[in-house]
Every structure is written in C-alpha cells, then in structure tokens.
Amino acid sequence: xxxxxxxxTKLVLYxxxxxxxxxxAWELALRLNPNHQKAIIALEKIKNSAxx
Length: 52
Fold this sequence. Notes:
The chain is mainly α. Helices cover 81% and strands 0% of the residues. It is built from three helices and no strands.
C-alpha cells in the first residue's frame, strides 16, 4: 500500500469513529518509523481525548 493510501486509511478509520483501529495503525507507523511526527501528534491527540 502506498504512503498516501495508508495515511488516508488511518484518517478514515478515525473519522468513522474507529479510534482503536486508527490508534493501532498509528502505533504501527511509529514502529516502522519512530520519528514519524504526524503519527506522534495523532497518538497524543487520541490519547488526550480518551482521557477527557
């Protein structure tokens, strides 16, 4: 799967309310590239929204 499609898929999962699946996808992105800033920010946001 190409990069753009992967990014779109994560955003679609999140927008559909599938936050758990989106979170897992972002965590996988970080395992593949620990410096992926957008994945880091996305995970911070989803974890902060879950704690509120």
